[in-house]
Design brief:
By secondary structure, the protein is α/β, with parallel strands linked by helices. The protein is about 40% helix and about 15% strand. The strands form three sheets. It has a seven-stranded mixed sheet with strand order 2-8-7-6-5-3-4, with helices on both faces. A hairpin with a 2-residue loop joins β12 and β13. The chain binds ligand TLP.
Amino acid sequence: MQPNVIDLRSDTVTRPTPAMRAAMASAVVGDDVFGDDPTVNELQRVAAEIVGKEAAILVPSGTMGNLAALLAHCERGVEALVGDESHIYNYEAGGASALGGVVYHVLPTTASGELPLAQVRKAVRPAGDAHAARAGVIAIENTHNRCGGVVLSLDYMQQLHALAVELGLPVHLDGARIFNAAVALGVPVKALTEHVTSVQFCLSKGLGAPVGSLVAGSQSFISKVHRIRKMLGGGMRQAGVLAAAGLIALTEMPARLAEDHANARWLAEQLAALPQIDIDLDSVQTNIIVFGVRDQSVEHFLTALRERGVLMVAFKDRVRAVTHVDVARAACEQALQAVVQVLHGDHEDMV
Ligand code: TLP
């Protein structure tokens, strides 16, 4: 890829910072399958503390984290209540169903990323009915990717928590971008994760680490996840090399996420001023911008943008742009200029 490309496809494209690379080079490591890697152990300790849970475990990806958590919550034939717009349901290859016999019970997702409480209540079938699959977990997502990076409110998290307690069900949070949610709400991450039983969050998105996610929960839950991680092939050996970058991601990077949110807001407002762009500014709450393009196909728009060195992705027949640590305000300004040129048809001159 050209070095000066402005890559807004996802915050997964971030490269490790110089501090991360230095920490990786000098990381003290051991064999993590034996539990011997001090840097992994430290990362897991710090992660559990930040999210206010007894224990945490490093896994290679957010997808594996969600999968291991669902398998730990649900036996075969047991239902996971998931949103129709959730990442788990749309982008994780049906893993919990394919590999663990978990039944996805799909509920509608509101534009604000919520599973309506009345629908959750209705989805739980009467205990003792031999015809019905039993519910095993309620899965939510914060921030909500397919809803455009929107943040679930504290109020909603509290209400869902109360309902889950009443129904006797655990709540799993796909918190791939939970730090973005906490920054947007101006609360510590713990204030959100205290309302869920388990959480998966990613180091490799806005926090900028190259690889890794953590699953956190009670000690006994994490022991189950540990065994399932091994079964899934996710036990890594000298993973301290990755954990060293992860520790910097966890401790130093959350503070700068507000900058990504401000850049996304700025770019979204500029886009909203263009008559060819269809955007709901209320949905731009964190680092994700989703918009429609009038008068030309998304495919044509993205190809023309790419010719100008700006990358975005197609997203539900719209376009998604995600801000992150490797895209400063100046790069957002250049991206906007490229969009304006493409909308005016100037791209024909480009080679
Ligand atoms: N999301 C990716 C793509 O898979 C869509 C992206 O570019 O946004 N939960 C949520 C909410 C996510 O957004 C993602 C990745 C994951 C889980 C999976 O994480 P990884 O990629 O580490 O498996």
